[in-house]
Write a structure and sequence with these properties.
With about 100 residues, the protein is an all-beta fold. Helices cover about 0% and strands about 45% of the residues. The protein has no helices and nine strands.
């Protein structure tokens, strides 16, 4: 797959940026999602989810302090320097601005 800002990806998703995630062992399941206002421009993929607007990832039961890694990344229809992703664990949500093809300001 091409990096964001170059080449072509599958179908309408012209750009790709690899962005894996880590989940601390013993943490509840994590949902990663694209805010609804961005879903026509941005999609994600982690593990075997395909190209989606949200994905669930569960931490394995490892010894404390061990991180579980998930391969994946971000698809874009057009080159965009920065995109928001929402990470939810239980009742806690945080929006993270992720640099894709430039610097987040």
């Amino acid at each position: 797959m091409p990096e964001a800002g170059s080449g072509t990806g599958p179908g309408p998703w012209r750009y790709w940026q690899k962005r894996g995630i880590l989940i601390l062992a013993g943490t509840g399941p994590v949902q990663v999602s694209v805010p609804s206002a961005w879903r026509q421009r941005v999609a994600i993929t982690y593990g075997t989810t395909g190209i989606v607007s949200f994905a669930h990832a569960a931490a394995c039961r490892q010894p404390p302090g061990v991180w579980d890694g998930y391969a994946g990344g971000i698809y874009l229809r057009a080159a965009t320097p920065c995109v928001p992703l929402v990470f939810a664990i239980g009742n806690q949500n945080v929006t993270v601005r992720v640099s894709v093809a430039g610097r987040c300001s």
